[in-house]
Task: structure prediction
Amino acid sequence: MSVKAIVGANWGDEGKGKITDVLAQDADIVVRYQGGANAGHTIINHYGRFALHLLPSGVFSENITNVIGNGVAFHIPSFVKELAAIEAQGVPAPKILVSDRVQLLMPYHILQDSYEEARLAGKAFGSTKSGIAPFYSDKYAKIGIQAAELFDEEALREKVENICTIKNALFVHLYHQEPLKADEIMQTLAEYREAIAPYLADTGAFLAEALRAGKTVLVEGQLGSLKDPDQGIYPMVTSSHTTAAFAAVGAAFPPYELKDIVTVTKAYSSSVGAGEFVSEILDETEAEELRKRGGDKGEYGATTGRPRRVGWFDAVATRYGCRVQGSTEVALTVLDALGYLDEIPVCTGYELDGKVIDYFPVTPLLKRCKPVLTVLPGWKQDIRGITRYEELPENCRKYVEFIEKEIGVPITMVSNGPGREELIHRKK
Result:
């Protein structure tokens, strides 16, 4: 078998958790390959409602092996807490393997993130203060701590002392905060070693063997195309690569194994945090009405609880997002939220300096863009509970088909509610 990726087309929060949860029913392995506990996947199933942050979305199925790949920013306390929380809700202990090459997100990364956001004040990046940017900075500066390094105390001590030297130059002299202490970090790492040792494995070798044996592998991404540091709205992006292409690196499998890329997009737009968002609804009353109706409990971040910015469906951004993902099919989510509208605008172009463009430009140009809207008739009906595409109201089907034509990728799934069973399948 080959690998299927589930990724986001936009700014994140597209409903990837539910789609992964559904498709995981036919999978043997589910892998998280990038990002950390800074964003969440909301999943509703027969066990209850869950907001996963680090755990792969396959943890609710006993037949699935869940893998945390080497590309993840791995915060061990969050992992331990999340695992205990799902088991407390009656979920059987899942099968989990953690890459022995994964790097550890440390308490000082979270401190540094918070200190830096405070220093930037009004010019901050809207970080979740989860330590993600300092973590990846350290990883690529080669002062990160790999899980495998926990088992060589002497070498680890030398590395920690070097980390303290570098970090304290920042913490004391730039941020005017207390210095880090090597002894305290070593004690923390000893606790981490004990907590994580039972899960560590050579997950690259495990996946290679699984693929040779014909197993089905799902890889799930965090956030979406427009938050990628290379392809997104830089600098208002995350610090890990959010594209399907990175899965081969972050999960450690050959890139030719990735055959199917399911890209998830909402039937409208939403975004947490700062950054360019051309189709945003600027009227707060209008925005709040959509925000309240969106998602399964409104448009509020699964990790942060922050109100999401909302806007009309952006065909320009989504077409671009699908292109950089290499989408083979699209899942359209939260269509049911739009049933209250008489008319539904769709952003089909951008006005840039008096000219209409149909492509997604770089950030400096994006700042000058205004939405060009095409207005479609609403369907004025609650569509939850409908299980066949043909039974959707005509204007609802026309809306889906209009979006499909605009983005140029087949919409094979339409989600019309938060539950696992509230999903309509369409043929490619």
User: Anything to note?
Assistant: Residues 243 and 362 are 17 Å apart (CA to CA). The first helix runs from residue 16 to 23. The first strand starts at residue 3 and ends at 8. The chain has a mean pLDDT of 93.
